[in-house]
Design a protein that fits this description.
The structure is a single chain. This protein is an all-alpha fold and about 120 residues long. It has six helices and no strands. Helix 2 crosses helix 3.
């Protein structure tokens, strides 16, 4: 019998990598912070990166996996406005860049479902 891959590990890695990315390349993330959020974009970039990394760790640890996975689902929903901001701002870019920006929008749905599937195990 073939065992199903533990899908929690790749989700944890995705979240942790994205969280680290906020610290390594904050300028990219600053640009997609919705303008209606109060305070400097850099604050939101670092805060969201720290939350992503922490949620990734929570998903990776079996004892906190359920809570971490629910937090991941909520985080993916909360990140949607940043993806909308990116799509709006990149509407005049090259077709490839527009495809990336617009492609991020529907990608949130499978990410939320992935996190919920892990939480419900």
């Amino acid at each position: 019998m073939i065992r199903r891959m533990n899908t929690a590990r790749p989700l944890a890695a995705l979240l942790a990598t994205a969280g680290i990315g906020h610290a390594v390349s904050p300028v990219f993330f600053d640009a997609i912070v919705p303008r209606w959020l109060p305070g400097p974009a850099r604050f939101w970039t670092y805060a969201s990166g720290a939350v992503e990394a922490a949620v990734g760790v929570a998903v990776a640890v079996p004892r906190t996996r359920r809570l971490g996975a629910y937090a991941a689902a909520a985080l993916f929903v909360a990140m949607f406005p940043a993806n909308v901001q990116m799509a709006v701002d990149w509407s005049d870019r090259t077709p490839r860049e527009k495809a990336v920006a617009y492609g991020r929008l529907p990608l949130q749905v499978p990410l939320v479902l992935w996190a919920l599937r892990i939480a419900r195990r």
